[in-house]
Amino acid sequence: MTVPVVDASLAPRRVLFEPVHLRGMTARNRVAISPMQQYSASEGGLANDWHLVHLGRFALGGAGIVFVESTAVEPRGRNTHGDIGLWDDAQVAPLRRVADLLRSQGAVPAIQLGHTGRKGALQTWWHGHGPLNDVDAARGEGPWPVVGPSALPVDTGWPVPSALTEDEIRALVAAWAAAARRAAAAGFDMLEIHGAHGYLIHQFLSPESNQRTDGYGGSAANRQRFALEVARAVRAAWPAERPLAWRISLADLDDGTLPMEAMVGFVGALRDAGVDVLDCSSAAGISSYPANGARVPRGLDFRADDAAEIRRRTGIAIMAVGFILDAHAAQDLVARGAADLIALGREALFNPNWAVHAEQQLQNDPSHALWPRAYRAWLAKRAPLADPVRAAAAARASAPREN
Ligand SMILES: Cc1cc2nc3c(=O)[nH]c(=O)nc-3n(C[C@H](O)[C@H](O)[C@H](O)COP(=O)(O)O)c2cc1C
Predict the structure, then answer these.
(1) Among the four given CATH numbers 2.60.40.10, 3.30.70.270, 3.20.20.70, 2.102.10.10, the one describing domain 12-370
(2) Where in the chain are the domains?
(3) Cα 183 from Cα 179, distance rounded (Å)
(4) Which of 195, 242, 268, 278 shows the smallest number of beta carbons within 10 Å?
């Protein structure tokens, strides 16, 4: 594996747009689109035209890596009725369309696999995003039984999960591996395991949600056992030349789940299991949201100093995420060794062309060479016409008004 190392001799303005090599994968730059659920699957958890167009925009917009949203490894592990899945072979073909489209437009097709555990069976955001209820059932979207490490709900009024038996845990680890094989068959070149945000793997890690008394609960090592079994099983099922990422909640540094020494030990074990990239989210999510928001300091949400320390001590590559808005901020995180990849969530929804715009902001691409070739000549003609019009409008807006 080649862990991307920032080359200090690179001109600082280029560092975000250097190609990245991980195992056998090369991405054209370090800008990744973060996994973002769309709650828009067709019947049977199938991806459809929405996913194709939504994700295709980011590839046209110049991102190096585009992640498909959290994709359920079994139906019980869905967040909502609109989640896509990879628990069935029938789900491979529509995702292959997505992977093929992303690759054809120059982006690395990537996908996140997830299981929501006790945080499943929720409404879509446009129906409130609380636990499914009778009103939802009347619409044909009733709840389903959810599972977790212990029979402890997220909060009062939330579904009480059934505690997974050891046989069920073994079956679930196999389901993760089977979904990884389907992701490979669909043509994805990078895979991420969702180990954060209060979902099943995170529920096992946290002493708040995991109060088991068997080999999967109690000590920190026991609580990490399910995570490491999933990591090893997925790595064995996922082609050796394709990189594997893991999403972690760095908020765990604060709440006793994984203080820094334990975090470094756990990440080292993930690395030894074959994880190449640590995707460092700052969201917590063990308790209900939005209440958990109050527990996490917000702002530029990426914990750069913590990530830099984990990167230095474990040698794992870091993907930064969390309110990274600006090309210069992104570039700075890479240049100072806090991150190898920069992931964008909401900012990419707001501006799917973020990457090509960032190249212009950093003055790397005056001739629009990074834009789709069908646009280039026209955009080159546009700039000298549009810039003076914009400048005149700005001057008018700032001029003192005459009464
Ligand atoms: C619409 C939406 C859906 C999301 N779905 C997922 C998901 O499927 N998996 C995940 O790990 N995070 C998910 N997230 C979190 C994002 O990946 C990202 O970590 C978060 O939004 C912070 O980055 P940002 O400040 O750039 O938006 C989602 C965020 C948004 C806005």
Answers:
(1) 3.20.20.70
(2) 12-370
(3) 6
(4) 268
